[in-house]
Amino acid sequence: MFAFFVFFSTVYAADDWYRPPVGVTWQWQLDGVVNEDYDVDLYDIDLFDSSVELIQRLQASGKKVICYFSADSYEDWRPDAADFSAQDLGKTLKGWDDERWLDIRSSQVRDVMVRRLRLATEKGCDGVVPDNVDSYRTNTGFSFRANDQLDYNRFLATQAHQLGLGIGLKNNPDQARTLSSDFDFAVTEQCFEYSECRSYLGFIQAGKPVLNAEYRRIYVDDESERNSMCQQSQRLAFSTLVLPKMLDDQFRLSCVP
């Protein structure tokens, strides 16, 4: 017998959320006008910048929609930026001057993230990808540890599932195997470039896909290099794309047949 969770007058059956299969095809675009023309199974797009109409059009064409947001960093341009307390803002992210690390132990930070997850349900997203969920590995300005990160990531997964959302683990190779039972898929960047791909095999073994993006220019310019990398990707059963680092659809090459 199913348990039910009620949020914003919407009823969700327990275990009733999107779970993409291994080998799923996908497109990832976070910048610019989203190109809706790719014949893929799912799109990964920005939670805030994507309209309900865009999400509905993609779904009407048979695609699932995964909505991206940052869960461990404060972005000063987001519409809910004022909801964070100054005491929960840490150091600036390297290379991202308008982002600061968040104290993931904070109840206020967690409340903001629950509201973001609810926004994803209101917009009709099939799932979410919270970014920067490995901040324990860097100098954030806070003194939390790996267990704090595990607790926070599991909190996000639990809240997403209670709202009927699938959820992906993004860029956390050291905790990927431990969290593979909590998340429905993984999203990783440059796992071949940084020799991190095998960290995510727990997802594949659990029947959950790994969506990987590679950014090295040699994969664009040298077909033999790209084919070699794609052969490795296919052996691992990963869904790998070669994309521009800005994720603006300037080009797209897929390793998935």
TrEMBL record:
Gene3D superfamilies: Aldolase class I
Domain Glycoside-hydrolase family GH114 TIM-barrel: 25-250
Species whose genome carries this gene: Marinomonas rhodophyticola
Protein name, UniProt field: Endo alpha-1,4 polygalactosaminidase
